[in-house]
From TrEMBL:
Pfam families: SBP_bac_1
Organism classification: Bacteria, Bacillati, Bacillota, Bacilli, Bacillales
Gene3D superfamilies listed in its UniProt record: Periplasmic binding protein-like II (3.40.190.10)
SUPFAM superfamilies registered for this protein in UniProt: Periplasmic binding protein-like II (SSF53850)
Protein name: Extracellular solute-binding protein
InterPro entries, per the entry: Bact_solute-bd_prot1 (IPR050490), SBP (IPR006059)
Length: 390
């Protein structure tokens, strides 16, 4: 269980599987138990639950990847039922092979403070908005009253706009060892969200403008809208949700995030049973049950019933506009990089730091400067990393 826990396994996944396959014995092993020790002991799990990051860090590291083509064919599993973006996200790491099936996808919604909207007489946001629409709303909510600075929009912006960006943009070039951040698409994306931080009256220093500080604001009741969700903290105001706004250049494009997969290992002695489990958990029946628990369907076609019942069992989203979570279509992954290229992991951090300067007092660089500086620093880091390996 790389991307699961004992509670989810015991209370949600295992009961579903046992109900369908009462003759199967199920054991859930949390990731605190080192996979390397299990491999050494010859006790490799039949299935590993994980996100795409599990592929290089666990599956491939220990040589456990299993091409499922034969199992898919013999079980007559219909891969066209699965959201194409989620299959492509896996193939990004596997040279096009299917080594698992997605159990659920990411799900996001725009949370809005109804109490604040009512206070200032601003109409509530709606499903299907663009970021331009959201910006116009934010302008009406951003004001200083009674010594309190109200914000139209706040966010854990590095994750929402950059890591999970709706354009599916990479930080590194797909074919060469160089940065891929100084592009018209990145410029559109960055300008599209930084404008929320440059509304009249707003001031940010290096701390208050930092992405982890900004995400805390919505829970205080002084911000009108935010995607990053912590509903258990929204106790001092009324709130609801609508679909995540989209860029007009990418209509209906969701944040791409990361689905979770059931990876079947090549060391498994129960591959057919493991395939049965994976196939069942992606069935309409199981996906509806998982949807009610807040796990977004991993399907190409999501039924109206799944949309209406999404997160139905959550104490926080009961009575909310839950269909908003599944309003947009999954976004595509960034293009796969050619083999042998440097994986410069600091690229995202460099980009975040340079973009933050655009709205940090005393720095205020323009978008062209921010992207150019990020490009130069990333290219320098790639060169240094390559040199260190010689």
């Amino acid at each position: 269980m790389n991307s699961s826990n004992k509670q989810e396994f015991d209370e949600l996944l295992a009961p579903l599987i046992r109900e369908k396959f009462p003759n199967y014995t199920l054991t859930g092993i949390e990731s605190s138990t080192k996979l390397s020790d299990m491999v050494t002991a010859g006790n490799v799990p039949d299935i590993i639950i994980g996100t795409k990051g599990t592929i290089p860090l666990s599956i491939q590291e220990f040589g456990l990847d299993q091409d499922l083509t034969e199992l898919i064919n013999t079980s007559k599993f219909d891969l066209t039922r699965i959201a194409p973006a989620y299959l492509e996200a896996m193939k990004y790491y596997t040279n096009g092979k299917v080594i698992g099936l997605p159990i659920n996808g990411p799900a996001f919604a725009l949370h809005y403070n109804k109490t604040l909207f009512d206070k200032f007489g601003v109409a509530y946001p709606k499903d299907g908005m663009t970021w331009d629409d959201a910006y116009e709303i934010a302008k009406k909510l951003t004001r200083n009253e009674g010594g309190i600075q109200y914000r139209g929009y706040s966010e854990r912006w590095h994750q929402i706009f950059m890591e999970f960006n709706q354009f599916g943009l990479p930080y590194l070039d797909a074919k060469e060892d160089k940065a891929a951040v100084n592009t018209p698409e990145w410029k559109t994306l960055v300008e599209g969200f930084v404008r929320f931080y440059k509304l009249p009256g707003l001031r940010f220093d290096s701390k208050s403008g930092y992405t982890e500080e900004d995400r805390k604001l919505f829970a205080t009741g002084t911000s009108g809208m935010q995607i990053f969700a912590q509903p258990e903290t929204y106790t001092s105001f009324e709130w609801d949700i609508v679909s995540v706004p989209t860029f007009k250049e990418r209509p209906n494009g969701a944040l791409w995030g990361s689905p979770r997969y059931l990876f079947i290992t090549n060391a498994s002695k129960q591959k057919e049973a493991a395939m049965n489990v994976a196939a069942y958990l992606t069935s309409d029946e199981a996906q509806l049950k998982l949807s009610k628990k807040g796990l977004a369907p991993a399907l190409a076609k999501i039924s109206d019933e799944m949309k209406k019942s999404f997160n139905q069992d959550s104490q926080y989203y009961k009575g909310k506009n839950v269909g908003a979570f599944l309003y947009n279509k999954p976004a595509a992954e960034p293009p796969a990089r050619a083999t042998g290229l440097v994986n410069f992991s600091k690229a995202q951090g460099i980009m975040i730091a340079e973009v933050q300067k655009m709205f940090t007092e005393g720095m205020e660089v323009d978008v062209n400067t921010a992207l150019r500086n990020a490009e130069e620093l990333i290219n320098k880091g790639i060169a240094e990393q390559k040199a260190s390996k010689k």
